[in-house]
Amino acid sequence: MQHDPLTHDELRLALSYIPADDRETWINIGNALKTEYGDEGFPAWDKWSQGGQSYNAADAKSVWRSLSPGHVSMGTVIKLATDAGWTRAKHELSAEDRCRLKAEAEERRRRLAEQVEADQAKLARMQAAVADACEKVLALHLTDQGSSSYLDRKGVGAYGVLFPKRSVLISIDAQRERADVWVGSEVRDWFAQLPTPRPDHLHMFHLKTGSVVLPLRDYQGKLWAFQSILPNGTKLFPRFGRKAGCCHIIPGSREVIGIAEGYATGASVHEAMGWTVAVALDVGNMTRVVPQVQQCWPDARLVICGDDDPETEGNPGRAKSEALATEHGCLPAFADLEAS
What does the record list as coiled-coil region(s) (predicted)? Predict the structure, then answer.
């Protein structure tokens, strides 16, 4: 259903009827405003977000940057506000005003489309730069021999994972569109010259000894990024690293192939069943990895190895895994495993 564009006053009033506490709603509203207004929509979204109990300014800026326009329309905002009791004031727009508002909206959409195209092209260049840096790190600074207190604590072995030989840093500069590798004392020097506060265009991915490193490849075997797991279980991923459709493969028998979220779950399934397991990092990426695995091994049976956490309200890990299995015609399986 098409709606006349909202004026800024109408938008602010409509948003005031929508609670900002539910994260999914919060993100959907952000997507809608970014789709309609581009970055000009951030002030209205941020102001509305401040009504949420968990509002954090830095988190809001970070999430806004990550939002992809085009997925949610302003119709979502209008429906949510209307359902909550908002009624759009009835006033007749003159033909001139209606024409002006529509022209302004079309111009915003045109500029937004150009920006999206430019952003996608830049993302592709940055993903390639990060992939090249990861290839260098893999060739020179990682080994398949090592130990990890994380793996010991989880009680699983090291299958295709790597260990840093020394401290390694990948610095990622979105402004200069490059990713550089620093090693040993160079890492300390890099941090020493880092401006405070750190500029938004500078990012870092620090691999420390004692960490576990998962190479993430596409179905053709190209390395795109790493996931590192610190001894305390914290998982890190490089800014601009490509994750969609990429995974870490634990090799095993291929009559049945498991798809798991995290490494510990995947390794546990492999040890128990002997299957090849694709570690996809999260549920969202599992849905992208499944078709890639099906393409590589069309004769294999696929099993979605979900995380089962009945202590969490709604058990979202199990629910999402079961839905994913149904969607792709796979079998769901759940083990009594500590969350990975």
Answer: 102-129
